[in-house]
Amino acid sequence: MKRAWWIAPCLALPALLLLPALFGQVLLFRDILHFTLPQQAFAAAARAAGHLPLWDPGRYGGAPFFAEPGTGVLYPPNLLFHLLSPAQAATWFVLLHLPLAGAGAYLLARRLSLSPPAASLAGCGYAGSGYLLSMHGNPYYFASAALLPGLCAALLGAADRRSPRAAAGAAAMVALAIFNGEMQALFFAAIFAGVLALCAQSQRARGTAWVGASLLLGAALGAVQLVPTAMFARGTVRAAGFSLEEAGTWSLHPLRWLEILAAVPFGVPFPENGYWGSSFVSQERHLPWAISLYLGPALLVPALLTGWPREGRRRALVAMALASLLLAAGNLSPLFQVWLKIAPLADRFRYAEKYALPVTLALVLLAAWKVEELAGTPRRALLGFAALAAALATAAAVTWGGPRWLDEIIARGLSQAEANLPLEAARAQLLGSLLQAAIFCAALAAAAAAARRNAAILPPILLGATFLAQGAHGLRILSFGDGSFLRREPAFLAPWRAALVSGSSGRVLNDGSCRYRGGGTGSLLERVRAFEWDTGKQNLPLLFGLREALGYGAAESARQLALVRGLHPSGLEATARAIGAAAILGCRGGELHVTPLASPLPRVRVVTDSGQLRAAILEDHPERVRIGATGPGLLVLADTAAPGWSARVDGAAVALRTVEAEFRAVDLREGDHEVVFEYRAPGLRAGALVSALALLVCLASLRRGSRWP
């Protein structure tokens, strides 16, 4: 086979996984519907209108949009939302990142001097890995995970070539990751590539310096996004860092390491909820961050046989895999607490399971590296697969016996996850997973025995086994569903609109009381999502241009969060009124209700000692609100104030005040006035200037391709 053709399996596996989408199915898990769809539909509408979506008026009484991590306004794949329906666009956004993941891992393996067959194994292993596919319910995090190996390959290319052109290419990849918005994966890439550059056989210092230079140039290239995001983050709950308990949410229990070897032994929460591993998940969560960690025996056994190698880069991969695995254990590992204290910005990120991402990448690279050696010594592979097959068969026999302690764990997990699977079926699921892995190992042991007569057949056999296993597993954990409910008007829409009072803020407070209790058609996943669609789960109303008093975002304002928490003791209705809501949405007796508040706060008013004077909104856009008002008094606009907002009265700049529930206000003199509130994202202009200069540097670097000394 020609060398170039070895990348084909890395692209064919993603093609297999997208087949359901070709028949109109869409992904439905986790944040896709109530987070990604409203967010990206809003951004697409703003871009189509010819301007950047800097401010989102639909959540929290208004909130920064462009600067919020993960909105991806400048990330090219989000242009899909201009071409397809929101649900289809979100699905294809995920699926089209899979070939990027496979090709990136292939190129990274080749950069590490692995052969094309071994690199193909790495590409298939990563593109179909359980951790990566589990992230499909968080599309922007999924995209960053898919970009990780390609980004590492580009950074190592800059280290190895030490040329301006290679550095410019790596910088472009860094900027792309910044535009996507998930910074932790970029943090992983910097460490991953930096450590591997330090462990090169020669020119270590220079190679590492080139990695650093590429990262800095990429940060400058992405400054148009990075600077506003950094300034926005100063006012969020992340600014002071998370506590150990918060950062360690979703800690990876060591018993879940079994998932790396056996496919979903603890079940899957969709399309029917058959998950029972809640006993091994953080207490406040009933499902894990990653519903699968699967790599399979064809990858895990070679990775485990690596041991402690002599080569510096392989040794670095082993060390990073072990360290990341301990960090993923979160609060269960003393190393995690030390890491939060010594690593810069580490406490700005939560969910310890995210450290399973570098574990996954390191293991597939180690497996691919070891396969090349096993081709020459297939006896070691034979023994490894045979030993693991025996261990798995023993575990299956114990499961078959149905010991009481195991049944108690399964029953407790099913209850915690509110699963709709009987105990016997859950135990059978575990048994099937263990037997499948045992048979798989036995088959690979037989293949290794055959390879003793023809060593060249072992790498292709392991590649084929990985392709089949990852493909079957991937189709199992991707949350495809019908999604036909998305094509009809949701039930909450009519009562929401009917409850709004003219002159009010138009915002509704969702009290969170709507819970799925049964009913509907289709799988459990489809029934739950259809229920959330009809009852207006947080953020979904934004799809229809409606506004919420609260909402859901990647980084909440610390001041707003403290304000709402402080209002809680006063009761739901008083809280809703104070934050400017016009109605309350909730469920009573299984029925949806949108209840108007009596005399809600007007969206705009002029407050005087003797009452209120005339005020009316003349122009209403997210970044510009024009008001006609009569003074004297304090004009209050019941929209959130934030850094970046300014005010003009009759064309003259005036001081902007923050009153009541973080509302915008200005003082008016006697008479009629025109008041204009305008928003500019802090740091956007400075960031754009830095990005423009960095782009010129990159273009100049592309013209100079020779290696620098």
Task: Note down, in words, how this protein is organized.
Helices cover 51% and strands 12% of the residues. Strand 9 (604-608) and strand 10 form a beta hairpin. The longest helix has 28 residues, at 423-450. The radius of gyration is 27 Å and the shape is globular. Among the domains are: 492-596, no CATH class; 604-685, Immunoglobulin-like, CATH 2.60.40. By secondary structure, it is of the alpha+beta class.
Topology, number of strands: 16
Indicate the percent of residues in helices. Answer: 40-55%
Q: How much strand content do the residues show? A: 5-15%
Terminal CA distance: 37 Å
Largest sheet: 8 strands, antiparallel
Mean pLDDT: 93
Number of helices, where a helix is a run of at least 4 consecutive DSSP H or I residues: 27
The chain-level structural class is alpha+beta
Radius of gyration: 27 Å
**Overall 3D shape:** globular
Model regions low in confidence, pLDDT < 50 over at least 5 residues: none
